[in-house]
Q: What sequence folds into this?
């Protein structure tokens, strides 16, 4: 008896690649980052003091290891592919790959977060598999459309030890790569991005509370001085009004005397 089309298994469904079991991992550890205030940039705009959250999750198996870092902005949503760095270590081929494949897409931009995430990922890989090879990849062409963005991206990658090669004269198609993990650098601009511990965060909150209390006292004193000035101003206005009335009366009396 032949099978109906509904009963026959779909070849396309069987051939469809299954997502990796670590694809949907959510952050498990969180840290606070302080983004230092920087001068206004003519391309990216104002760069005020900000605090963001760093999420971290890692998994290990005999075949692979994964570190996923994500940046969360308070009161602001970003796309799923933004503010994300993944470091995959393949223990079978002894290679380390930095992702995602779409490249680092950071918000806020031009605040040092790119080098920070790369530095964290490189330090994690160097600590465990410094002898592994680095798997290179293609650079996204969207960054090449803006020359300033491309220069910032290339500078960040080169500062971490990656090599960049372009396949065309317009520098639109590029690739990044490196030798071994040990050749990469795990540092970043610590004056731009700072990890804040719970103790430091508590001290900052305490200091902010003290500053607010001191400002409230100063504001209250200023309000009292303003109220006193207003009372003095009212008294002066009344005195001036009385003098004006008296002067007008004297002038009128003098005119009446001279005419009569």
A:
């Amino acid at each position: 008896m032949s099978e109906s089309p509904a009963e026959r298994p779909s070849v396309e469904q069987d051939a469809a690649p299954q997502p990796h079991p670590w694809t949907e991992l959510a952050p498990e550890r969180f840290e606070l980052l302080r983004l230092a205030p920087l001068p206004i940039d003519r391309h990216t705009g104002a760069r005020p003091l900000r605090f963001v959250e760093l999420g971290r999750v890692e998994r290990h198996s005999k075949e692979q290891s994964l570190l996923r870092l994500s940046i969360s902005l308070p009161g602001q949503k970003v796309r799923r592919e933004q503010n994300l760095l993944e470091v995959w270590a393949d223990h079978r081929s002894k290679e380390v790959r930095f992702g995602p494949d779409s490249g680092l897409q950071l918000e806020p931009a031009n605040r040092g977060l790119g080098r920070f995430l790369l530095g964290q990922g490189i330090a994690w890989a160097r600590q465990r598999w410094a002898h592994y090879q680095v798997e290179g990849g293609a650079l996204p062409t969207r960054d090449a459309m803006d020359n300033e963005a491309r220069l910032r991206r290339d500078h960040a990658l080169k500062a971490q030890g990656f090599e960049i090669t372009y396949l065309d004269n317009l520098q639109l198609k590029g690739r990044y790569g490196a030798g071994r993990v040990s050749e990469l650098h795990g540092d970043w601009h610590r004056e731009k991005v700072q990890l804040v511990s719970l103790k430091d965060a508590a001290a900052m909150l305490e200091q902010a509370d003290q500053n607010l209390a001191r400002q409230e006292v100063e504001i209250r004193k200023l309000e009292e001085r303003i109220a006193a000035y207003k009372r003095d101003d009212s008294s002066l206005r009344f005195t001036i009004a009385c003098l004006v009335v008296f002067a007008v009366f004297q002038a009128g009396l003098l005119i009446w005397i001279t005419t009569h």
Remarks:
- The longest strand covers residues 50-60.
- The mean pLDDT is 86.
- The chain has four helices and twelve strands.
- Helices lie at 11-15, 113-129, 147-159, 198-259.
